[in-house]
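Standup notes
- DV: blocked on the single-chain target, sequence here:
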Amino acid sequence: MATVELRFSAQPEHVRTARLVAAAVARRAGVDEAVLDEVRLAVGEACSRAVGLHRSNGVTSPIRVVLNEEDKAFSIEVGDEVPGAVIAAADAAGVPVAGGAAPPTEDFDDVEGEDEMGLAVISGLVDDVEVSAGERGGVIRMSWPTNPATLLP
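- DV (later): unblocked, structure below
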């Protein structure tokens, strides 16, 4: 059960690297080739969303991406450090929210609804997605089934 963790500054140019790494690790974990484009797109949306939240809210800490190879699944967690950001957007987009959190601070800026749109796109691409938020920020957890017969050496 391998885990890969990426941390990158909130710069849009780093999103492409996160997508490429996610696709490579997903392929190695045994995610079906037909689903790899969805993995790339979903990770790109989640990372772009986190970058936008960090930049528009003046957060300087890095974006976290954790890729986990589990028994029969491959999961990716994309974390931001904007308190309460996920709750407001998740409710408006209809994406399930795990746990509870305080509403966004009055300084919270969702970049004119891009936050909601990103979550809607992710929920359309990924069957198994969880969105959670707290005082330390939010996490989008996505997972896909793996086929152990297709694992690369």
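- Follow-up: Residues 102 and 145 are 33 Å apart (CA to CA).
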